[in-house]
Amino acid sequence: MKMSKQFPLNALRVFEAVARLGSFTRAGEELGMTQTAVSYQVKLIEESVGEPLFLRRPRQIALTDVGQRLAPRVTEAFEMLQEAVSSARGDIDSTLLISSTPTFASQWLARNIGSFQLAHPTIAVRLDTNDNLVDFAKESTDLAIRSGAGVWPGLDTHPLMRVEFSPMLSPALAETIGGIREPRDLLKLRIIDAGDPWWRLWFSAAGVKDPDLEGRPTSRLGAQSFEARAAIAGQGVAILTPEFYGDDVALGRLYQPFDLRCSDGCDYWLAYPHARRNTPKIRIFRDWILGELCPSVQFGADWVKERKAASAS
Predict the structure, then answer these.
(1) CA distances from 7 to 4, 10, 45, 89, 227 (A)
(2) Which helix (H) or strand (E) holds 304?
(3) pLDDT by residue (tens digit) across 26-51?
(4) What is the mean predicted confidence (pLDDT) over 165-174?
(5) For the whole model, what pTM was predicted?
(6) N or C: which end of the chain has fewer CB within 10 A?
(7) Where in the chain is the domain with CATH 3.40.190.10?
């Protein structure tokens, strides 16, 4: 592959948009260009590279091997340029948009974000709560906090919190059946979201092989925090992450009848695009939250190394 000393920067921007969107038409709409102009710019960059970058098929295009190698590098280069310009304008001390799962946002982030804002008053924090995957190329999100295995191509990830779960309920509800003495006693009560796979994992680990959850009423409250509120209100037994509800336990609103906790391998992770890893506001927030949660202290350095290795593989 031969690259001339002078190559058209605008053509690279058009190439990046076409490669990302998979369409000449959509790239033109995004850039405010006609499809003919987009095709011309792509042709210019192909001439500069000396090889075709796209395979043109009827109503479909695909990157060639050369195009596949070039596209992520071009995307990263433009993101680095954007960061440089933002830094020059002083935008680094502007708005940090964080996307988080509703439960982590309500049970940990909202309770602790004040210390971050006190330490960095020039960074305004915006919080978006949802469970959807973030498309960093199309959205203005800076960071995402998600539950999973931590393996997302193109993203740098850091383990935040190991997710373990166990049944929890209000003490008053437990007293209605004379207390909870063995795991099967839980089945005497309403199970909140009996379709949650966590229930089967926990009952199996507790030695209850036939919990008969299928015939129970199903409920989807949308977030663990809502299930916790229902449990506090005495509406049933919820399967929750105990770390999030220490205050409720201390106040006698919830209790965990058994020490047994289980994990399905999906933990909380911080994620952001690799190309933006050195953006000041991202780096500042990353260092703060890792310092607050200290995953290597909470769960052991070996676990953190294991999860990082899995993420990199």
Answers:
(1) 6, 9, 7, 27, 57
(2) helix 301-312
(3) 888 888 888 889 898 999 888 888 88
(4) 96
(5) 0.68
(6) C
(7) 91-157+265-312, 166-250
